[in-house]
Amino acid sequence: NAGVTQTPKFQVLKTGQSMTLQCAQDMNHNSMYWYRQDPGMGLRLIYYSASEGTTDKGEVPNGYNVSRLNKREFSLRLESAAPSQTSVYFCASSEDQLSSYEQYFGPGTRLTVT
Amino acid sequence: TQLLEQSPQFLSIQEGENLTVYCNSSSVFSSLQWYRQEPGEGPVLLVTVVTGGEVKKLKRLTFQFGDARKDSSLHITAAQPGDTGLYLCAGAWSGYALNFGKGTSLLVTP
Prior knowledge:
The complex is a heterodimer. Chain A has strands at residues 4-7, 10-13, 19-25, 31-38, 42-49, 56-57, 64-68, 74-78, 87-94, 104-105, 109-113. By secondary structure, chain A is mostly beta strands. In chain A, a hairpin with a 5-residue loop joins strand 7 and strand 8 (74-78). Chain B is mostly beta strands. Helix content of chain B is 0%, strand content 54%. Chain B contains no helices and 11 strands. In chain B, a hairpin with a 5-residue loop joins strand 7 (61-65) and strand 8. Chain B is globular.
C-alpha cells in the first residue's frame, strides 16, 4: 500500500517549456488535490477534484491545468512554465471532499523554472 | 480566501522545554486540522478538531480548539529532537476546501 505517489521527484525546466506532474493514490479515495508550497507562503491549493469526473479551481489556478484521469490518478500540467512557478508541488487525496477528512500527501515534486 | 495566522513563525528550543504554537483567524472555522511536515516530505495529519472548546491529546502534544472556533493551539511538553519539523494548521470555512497557515518551524536541539 504505497499511499500517494508523485513523479517526478525533481524537475528543471526552461521558461516556456511544458510538463505534466503525475499523481496516483491506491487508497480508493474520492477526492484529490494539488498544492504548491513556497517559502513563507504555506500550502496553497491550485486545483482539486471532489470526485472522479469533476475538477475545480483553487486559490492559485492560473498557469495550470488538471486532469482526473480515473479514480486513482490526478495530473497537473504546466503548459508554458514561468519562473514564478518554481515551487514544491504536493498532491493529496482524501476519502471525501469534506474538510473534516484527513488529507494524505505525497512526497512532493521539486520544480525549478529557469 | 480566509486568512489563517500562525505564530510564532520560527521557534528554536532545547530538549526538555515546553512550547505552544498558535493558529488564529477572524472567522469561525467549521473544523481545524494540525499537520506536521518533515524536510523533504509531505505533511502528515496529527489531529482534527471540530467542537468549540475541544481538547485532544496525542502523547506529549495537546491540541485545543477555542470556544468560539476562531483559534487553536498546539502545546508540546518536554520537547524532543524528534519533534523538529514544520507545524501547519489548516482550517475550513466552506465545508471542503482547507486553507493552510504558513506554518511554525520548530527546531529542538539536544
